[in-house]
Write a structure and sequence with these properties.
By secondary structure, the chain is an alpha/beta fold. It contains 14 helices and 13 strands. It has 2 domains: 199 residues, Glycogen Phosphorylase B (Rossmann fold, 3-Layer(aba) Sandwich); 163 residues, 3-Layer(aba) Sandwich (Rossmann fold), CATH 3.40.50. The strands form 2 sheets. A 7-stranded parallel sheet has the order 3-2-1-4-5-6-7, sandwiched between helices. Helix 7 links the parallel strand 6 and strand 7. It is globular, with a radius of gyration of 22 Å.
């Protein structure tokens, strides 16, 4: 039990899906420390995550819309955060994703509640650039003035925010993603995989900025030369994201029979185990989760030399890096992969697993957050004591 046992910690995110898929290691670690945890996020079908928790309450958000740029809606969101935090009186707020980092953090500032902001990738605003990037940067800059720490899930994003003075370098810390359960994601022999096929899979949301189009274009090039290859799309369109693939274009890809659209997977391990290589040509990430999952299962990976992807791959060791938005270069890299022997591919996979275990294991990430939270909690307790005296 930690010295701040039964402190109340509020964890804020833009969806329950985000909590279930990326934050369960943090919840479990904070529960083990004896903290009282409230999760503040819109409810979706992943609310069943509560079945895995003993000391967590969920508070639903009504005003948070991920894609909305309406200032009236965002003002309503700020006041909703303010009402919830004023009523709950947490000892510390841990914010994830863009709008909680801005509006929940501002509400915590008005209520004099210590906060940590976690930047989980820069997303559409920074990939698109222009006025949306400028506006988001300004809001971040205003909000981060009151954060005790700003945590980035890769080094590139931390250096970018520091150099542009969006966040004070003294506030900023970088970690390596949100953590991978290496007991759950582990090597599993393929099952019912055609022996004469080399299978390349893209796993993720069907967004243009995830590189789906480049994956399909590279597949066309490779399939024309190597008919024994197969290219699979695993995932689905995300209608709430402005970068989502158009339905008509996805239908065209499927009709051309260059790629096999397998839809979303209830257990992504089944798709990884039957793939020879995972390809993820994203334009920018925090640290790409699917790369870590594939590496943990001893699969070689091919990805882009961009923030959040390059940190997962040692080029030529556990996978390959290619230029972003370059289908021809991606196809050349796939060609290179096809020249490798089975033993060389297996060695790449083993090196990937070793990298995940030493750098990306979920216990490394949860231990970091437990330590940081316990370090910051006495600040609140000390201040509260002075205020009441």
């Amino acid at each position: 039990m930690c010295r701040n046992s039964m402190a109340k910690i509020a964890i804020v995110a833009n969806s329950t899906w985000n909590i279930f898929n990326f934050r369960m290691n943090i919840l479990r670690a904070l529960e083990a420390e004896g903290h009282d945890i409230i999760v503040i996020a819109p409810i979706d079908k992943y609310i069943f995550y509560l079945n895995e928790c003993n000391n967590v309450r969920h508070i639903s958000l009504k005003s948070l819309s991920r894609k909305s740029l309406n200032p009236i809606k965002d003002t309503l969101l700020f006041f909703e955060f303010y009402r919830v935090l004023r009523f709950e009186k947490p000892d510390l707020v841990l914010n994830y994703t863009v709008k909680p980092n801005i509006y929940a953090n501002m509400a915590a500032r008005f209520l004099d509640i210590p906060s940590i902001c976690v930047v989980t990738g820069l997303g559409y605003a920074y990939i698109k650039g222009g006025w949306l990037e400028s506006l988001t940067s300004l809001l971040y800059k205003i909000s981060f003035r009151s954060a005790k720490k700003v945590v980035f899930e890769n080094t590139d994003d931390r250096l970018l925010f520091s150099s542009k003075k969006i966040a004070d370098p003294a506030q900023c810390i970088s970690i390596k993603g949100c953590g991978i359960n290496t007991g759950f994601f582990k090597p599993i022999p393929p099952q019912n995989k055609p022996e004469n096929k080399i299978i390349f899979s893209f796993i993720g949301r069907f967004l243009y900025d995830k590189g789906v189009k480049e994956f399909v274009e590279a597949a066309k090039i490779i399939r024309s030369k190597h008919p024994h290859t197969e290219f699979r799309l695993i995932g689905e369109i995300d209608p709430d994201n402005p970068a989502t693939v158009l339905e008509d274009e996805l239908l065209q890809w499927v009709n051309e029979k260059v790629v096999d659209d397998r839809g979303p997977s209830s257990d992504v391990r089944e798709e990884i185990r039957n793939s020879d290589c995972i390809i993820f040509p994203s334009y920018r990430e925090a640290i790409a989760r699917v790369l870590q999952e594939a590496m943990a299962m001893e699969k070689p990976v091919i990805t882009t030399d961009v923030a959040g992807c390059r940190e997962a791959v040692d080029h030529g060791e556990n996978g390959f890096l290619v230029p972003v938005k370059n289908s021809a270069a991606l196809a050349e890299c796939i060609d290179r992969f096809l020249t490798l022997s089975v033993q060389e591919r297996e060695l790449m996979g083993r090196k990937g697993r070793q990298k995940v275990e030493s750098e990306f294991d979920e216990n490394i990430i949860s231990d970091f957050f437990v330590g940081l939270i316990n370090e910051l909690l006495p600040i609140r307790n000390k201040y509260a004591g002075k205020k009441s005296s």
